Amino acid sequence: RRYAPDTDHGGVMAKIKSVEVWQVDLAAKTKRGDAIQAFPKQETPMVRVRTADGLEGVGYTYTIGTGGSSVVALIRDHLAPQLVGRDADGIEALWQALFFHTHATAVGAITSLALCAIDTALWDLRGQRTGMPLHLMAGGAQERIPVYDTEGGWLHVPTKEIVANAAHARKLGLKGVKIKVGKPHVSEDVKRLAAVRKEIGAEMELMVDANQGFTVAEAIRRARHFEALDLAWFEEPLPAEDMTGHTLLRASTSLPIAVGESIYSLSHFREYLQHGACTIVQTDVARIGGITPWLKCAHLAESFNVSICPHYLMELHVGLCAAVPNAPWVEHIPQLDVVTRNRMRIEKGYAYPFTSPGLGIDWDWKAIEKLRVGPVARIG
Q1: Are 182 and 236 in contact (CB under 8 A)?
Q2: Rounded CA separation 74/92 (Å)
Q3: What Cα–Cα distance (Å) separates residue 174 from each residue in 57, 287, 349, 351?
Q4: Could you give the CA distance from residue 93 to residue 185 in angstroms, rounded to a whole number?
Q5: Is residue 6 scored above 70 in pLDDT?
Q6: Residue 69, number of CB atoms within 10 A of its CB
Q7: Among 73, 79, 213, 281, who pairs with 182 as Cys (CB 3.0-4.6 Å)?
Q8: Which long-range contacts (CB under 8 A, 24 or more apart) does 86-90 make?
Q9: Pick from 254, 318, 255, 239: which is nearest to 285 by CA?
Q10: β-strand 257-259 against 372-379: which pairing, if any?
Q11: Residue 93 contacts by C-beta under 8 Å, 6 or more apart in sequence?
Q12: Euclidean distance between the first and the last CA atom of the chain, given in angstroms as a whole number
């Protein structure tokens, strides 16, 4: 369906008629654990926005096991009522209005996650109206994105098994693997990483992720030991709120320092970049508040000549990465396939964005209903 502009902006064509919100719980594909937490399930709040012309957009967000009901409640009680009767095409205006309507709880994770569910639904709706897929609506900079695997590198997995998982990723043609670090002693991390590097060779990229588990002193120490392994990046070495620590670490090592999955504001990314506290940003579309602020982060990073390598949610991020010129990686952690009929296309180590209108996700509504937790709330 091609876009036919509504001459009465805010009129019947794009007026929001109703909003629905509910939660689906998706069990983790495999046992997942890192330096600070376990990841037993993905709580998945979902939103459906319908407009008066009969179109609808579906968006979603996630948590890694707790807080999903709080996200649903915030949308149901405070955000969704603000949408009914508004113009769905005014995505930026709606994002700003919702952000300031709940300003007492922003900037913060719950508010950002809730905003994402709504914002992605609105972008999906825009795609249904214009007939355009996400990557073209948002920029259309790239045709495909290299993929790296995280699923085989969890911290509890024995060395022999992570080596086998890395070898499998290499055989599949994936371009990199990420290994969790944070063992009690640096020598344990180094032993695991050295075994993986030996298996995959020098040309395949190796990333590590500490999940905010180190002190500044320990991060500097481990970075010194990791440098010989030629890592593509050292991810979340410190608590995200410790920008000074990241600045000290960045100045002490040649390793690229990656941060961002636990940052919830565009201005916080700006401060990290201005202080030289990172060399890669990993903005998570859910945790930053949706597609609208994610794109701003990507272009902000581009202005600093910095890459954006987003965290998780590969089905959303593949389109966003293809939209911008400075996104060199998509992280491979499958999760949505139990509630969708289509899969992210991966060929020879490259991910391709969905080509159907909107987000491009073909939801399996029977599976969603089976996994739904609690009732569907309808506003409007």
Answers
A1: no
A2: 20
A3: 32, 26, 4, 10
A4: 50
A5: no
A6: 14
A7: 213
A8: 86/10, 86/15, 86/16, 87/9, 87/10, 87/11, 87/14, 87/15, 87/16, 88/14, 88/15, 88/16, 88/49, 88/51, 88/57, 88/122, 88/125, 88/126, 89/6, 89/9, 89/14, 89/126, 89/129, 90/10
A9: 318
A10: unpaired
A11: 87
A12: 26
Strand order in the sheet with 56-60: 56-60, 41-51, 16-27, 372-379
41, 311, 317, 332: which one is catalytic? 311
Q: Within its chain, how far is the Cα of 332 from the centroid?
A: 11
- Residue 8 pLDDT: 42
What average pLDDT does this structure show over 162-174? 96
For residues 280 and 329, what is the distance between their CA atoms, to the nearest angstrom? 11
Confidence of residue 1 (pLDDT cuts 50, 70, 90): very low
The amino acid that residue 309 corresponds to is C
- Partner residues linked to 176 by β-bridges: 148, 205
Whether 192 has a pLDDT exceeding 80, the answer reads yes
How far is residue 215's CA from residue 366's CA, in Å, rounded to a whole number? 46
**208: cis peptide before it, omega within 30°?**
no
Q: Give CA–CA dist 120/59, Å, rounded.
A: 5
Contact 178/212 with Cβ under 8 angstroms?
no
Would residue 171 show up in a list of annotated catalytic residues for this protein? Answer: no
Beta-strand relationship, 56-60 and 345-347: unpaired
Compute the radius of gyration of the chain from its Cα atoms: 21
Find the angle CA(162)-CA(278)-CA(142) to the nearest 5 degrees: 75
Query: What are the tens digits of pLDDT across the range 224-251?
Result: 999 999 999 999 999 999 999 999 999 9
Sign of CA dihedral 55, 361, 266, 264: positive
Q: Percentage of residues in the chain with pLDDT exceeding 70?
A: 96
Longest dimension (CA), the chain: 66
Structural element, H or E, at residue 41 = strand 41-51
- Are 245 and 272 a contacting pair, CB within 8 Å? no
Active site residue 178: no
Q: How confident is the model at residue 13 (pLDDT cuts 50, 70, 90)?
A: low
Catalytic residue, from 41, 175, 178, 180: name it. Answer: 180
Give the residue carrying structure tokens 């009522």.
81
Tokens 């293809």 belong to 322
Strand-pairing partners, residue 20, are 48, 378
Paired strand residues for 21: 47, 377
Q: What is the DSSP letter of 95?
A: H
- CB atoms < 10 A from the CB of 30, how many? 13
